[in-house]
Every structure is written in structure tokens, then in C-alpha cells.
Design brief:
2 domains; about 110 residues; mainly alpha; flat; two-stranded antiparallel ribbon
Length: about 110
């Protein structure tokens, strides 16, 4: 069994920024954990119902509809990579900080008008 390559802390951190993901929908982790299975179940139920109703009306066409709809199943969108998430947060922080400094400069120049 080959030995694992030892990684430096810097390599580990860069890999973490690439591979780890963060929720960028604004909901907490429990929201994603609960809503994804729920949405999949709803999509599967609607698929079965559509196939069943079409099957009752016309068995040959019902199978075609079932196959067409099965291609449109629920697919969870991937979350944002951790590196992008951190860059976005830093950019927002810089923008907020820059606005705060500009307000202070304007206040110092013109005083309270």
C-alpha cells in the first residue's frame, strides 16, 4: 500500500478553499438539509402522478410521458466554493469600510450640515 503524500498546511488550506463549499442562498445548513430531500420527494411524486394519469388514459403514451418527465428530475444546485465565498465577503467588507471612511471625511470637511 503506497504511503500518502504529506501535505503542508498551506497546501491543505488551498485544497480546502477549492473543495469546501458554503451555502450562498442565505439559509442555514438545516434549511438545505431538510429542503433538498423534500423537493426531491415532491418532484418524484409529481412524476408518478403524471405517469399514472397518462397511463390510465393511454398506456403507450403514459410510458413516453414518464420517460420524458424522468429526465426533468430535481437537481440540487451546488453551493459556492469556500474560496469564492471568502473573496465575496472580503469585497463586501472593503466596500462597507470604504463607505464609512468616505462619510467620516465628508463629515470632517463640511461638518454637520
Amino acid at each position: 500500500m503506497p504511503l500518502k503524500k504529506r501535505r503542508s498546511p498551506q497546501e491543505k488550506k488551498s485544497l480546502s478553499y477549492e473543495r469546501d463549499r458554503r451555502d450562498n442562498y442565505g439559509e442555514n445548513h438545516k434549511g438545505s438539509r431538510k429542503s433538498v430531500p423534500k423537493r426531491k420527494a415532491l418532484a418524484n411524486r409529481s412524476l408518478r402522478r403524471a405517469g399514472a394519469t397518462m397511463w390510465e388514459q393511454n398506456p403507450e403514451q403514459g410510458e413516453d410521458v414518464f420517460l420524458q418527465k424522468s429526465l426533468k428530475r430535481f437537481k440540487k444546485a451546488p453551493h459556492q466554493p469556500l474560496g469564492d465565498f471568502i473573496r465575496t465577503k472580503e469585497q463586501a467588507r472593503k466596500t462597507r469600510f470604504g463607505a464609512k471612511v468616505r462619510r467620516q471625511i465628508e463629515k470632517a470637511k463640511f461638518g454637520d450640515l
